[in-house]
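Quiz preparation item.
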């Protein structure tokens, strides 16, 4: 296992954060406008909490951050903060999802799991995350499916 010299953090791309901030602001303003309508139909008032929920979840989505250091992995920004030490990891798996077979890495640790989607981090950051994991985690903890999908990702890079 190699040493990670510098802590690296990964989050959503900046353009996605800007779009999410704008859309969540628009949704909140639309929800307020619907509440202020005097002759609002009951169905419209019923939609307002749903609109606020979507706006808040878009805001939380932009705050997600994965930090990988020599000590371990820290996933912050959601409702809870996950800290994973390297020796807590029991297995690393990977699956392909959806029409375009987008890879998703699954880190199993202490009876829980952390899922890292390539669609969130995009190609360059996702490959860097996988490289850092392979530097710190023992090779026998990676499943055969991980090895197969990882080799096909390297070919397509």
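Solution:
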């Amino acid at each position: 296992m190699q040493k990670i010299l510098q802590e690296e953090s990964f989050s959503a791309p900046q353009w996605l954060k800007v779009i999410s901030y704008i859309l969540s602001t628009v949704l909140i303003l639309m929800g307020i406008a619907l509440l202020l309508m005097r002759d609002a139909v009951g169905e419209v008032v019923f939609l307002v909490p749903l609109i606020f929920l979507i706006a808040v979840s878009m805001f939380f989505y932009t705050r997600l951050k994965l930090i990988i250091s020599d000590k371990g992995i820290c996933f912050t920004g959601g409702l809870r903060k996950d800290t994973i030490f390297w020796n807590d990891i029991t297995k690393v798996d990977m699956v392909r999802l959806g029409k375009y077979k987008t890879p998703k890495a699954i880190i199993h640790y202490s009876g829980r799991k952390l899922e890292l989607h390539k669609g969130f981090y995009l190609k360059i950051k996702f490959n860097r995350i996988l490289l850092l994991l392979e530097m710190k985690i023992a090779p026998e903890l990676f499943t055969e499916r991980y090895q197969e999908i990882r080799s096909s990702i390297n070919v397509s890079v």
